[in-house]
Predict the 3D structure of the following.
Amino acid sequence: MREAGPLVCLAALLLIGLPAAARAGPTGAPGEGGTGPVSPPLPTEIWGEAYYQAATTDSTASPSLGVAQEAGLSINVRSPVGLEVLADFIVPLDLNRDISPETLVPQLFVRASPAPGLSISAGRQRLNWGTAKIFSPIDLLETRANPLDLRPYLPGISGIKTDFFPDESFGMSIVALPATDVRWSRGAARVELLLEDLDLDLGFGIVKYGDAESSDRVGLLHDGALSLGGVVLYEEIQLRWGRESVYLFPGMSSPLDGGGQPVFRGAVGAMLPVDFGLTRPSTLLVEYFYNGDGLSAGEAREFATRYGAWQEAGYPGGAQLPVAFASLGGLRRHYAAVSLADVALDRFLLLGITGIAGIDSALGWLAIDLEYEVIQGTAFAIRYEVGHAFQSDQPTDLLMIPFCNRFTLSVTTGYK
């Protein structure tokens, strides 16, 4: 019954979306007990997509291959009264995989628009802000602790979000997230200004943490994008007090940082079209990320020494890798990324290449994507990823990438 709960809620919400004529009795002409001519109600709209994915991986801990399969379904429903429901379901197809119900339902929320320019959504949803294309430094609502966490389907978080856009040049978003056993409660607000004459988009925000021990914890956010013809320049800046992680494992004597110092994160990038003389222009993306949660060179050496001693002692405290590293904000501070997307090898065949390098860690990650659109709305995709540490004296680098090689095959189809 616990797994069926989201489906029951969705069915109930679908009933809300039935046209009014289906729930009310017939109306006749005036004088015959009716209310006069009534315009036909708008139909209920249903659309979404379904996918199947299979991935084979050799982990950094074991060279043996394993295959993981999953299927997903996305459902969007919009009723005649403007009520919208969105649900994502992910079903693991390997019976030996232990996945929690929270992972199986990344999104399940209701969105209403009670007035023009006003939208309110409540439930489990994705709440991502900012302009960066690869990294997400200002996203304090669902921060990716690992800068190399590039999953296309992030799990959502429960909360309420209100968006108010009275016109095309100004907007405001307010978010409230309750506390869970793994994160503090948070309240956040963001204002967006669009200066069309200057082709400039600016955003300013603040996040307030509800941590009982540090109720004064706040984060300040800023993002911006400038269009110069076909070139887009963008940036994100985050300043907050207190690290998300203090780099302390069970069995270690003390953390590297007390967690009370200001932490700065930021990203800058450029996106521009590139014409190879193919059926469509390609897109070149260059992005740099400064990870304030990462380790400096001195901290990295100290961390490696402590980690080596902890490893030799048999991981006292019972922590297991790579789970123990999931809370880290990234082992190093400087990352760069280059992406070439939408390379049209054929009218229906697209190539994409993305590479990330840890500038101060000699760490590399490369992904090659090939997508073929069989018919409109249905496509096959193949992705190959490789992670590599170029220096053998940095044993902790690849722990941020839990595989050496990964090959993924997927098929996605949309419906309406």
About this structure: The chain is about 10% helix and 45% strand. The helical segments are 5-16, 20-23, 101-104, 297-312.
